[in-house]
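This part of the workshop introduces the protein records we will be handling. The structure tokens are whole numbers drawn from a learned vocabulary of backbone shapes. The record below serves as our worked example for the rest of this section.

===
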Amino acid sequence: MSESLKNLSELSDAKLAELVKSGNDSAFDVLTLRYLRNIGFLAKKYSADGYERNDFVQEGLLGLLYACRTFDSNNKASFKSYVDIVAKRRFISIVRKAQRQKAVPSSSLVSLDADNDELGGESTDPEQLMLAKEHYSLLLDELKTLLSEREYTVLMLYCGGMSYVEAAKKLGISAKSADNALQRAKKKISLHYMSLKD
């Protein structure tokens, strides 16, 4: 890491996006933690046959990576607004793709090499997709080792767009237990990333 995550966490989203564009993976870690809840909340509003909510969250994180690489700080839109637009376009693309597949008999389907709906009109680089999904998987693995099973589960439901009350109902625990687990998870993550140095 070129900078400690503690120092990175003090930077604005736009500045972190610039660092991601220049290849700083740690800056993307910080942005991922900042935006995972928002992406999960947006993903909750979409559904498509053959896709789970986690698929939408992963697409949203790929959208975050794309937004980092294409954001122009000279535009009037904030980085958050730009991420929301990119993520929503990716989600809409999934829904449209699923609808097209459903509407066409499987015997008529022909595979095409390039689908330009993937990144808001841009074709998807398979290497970038693989790296972003790998990054997401590594982040989840790190969270699993850092948090207790309950903390991790509540955090993932929360990041998926549920309130702690909804997470409590789903897990069959009290709202207070879910809230405590969520607060412990947030504190552990914050302390963990603040303790990391070069």
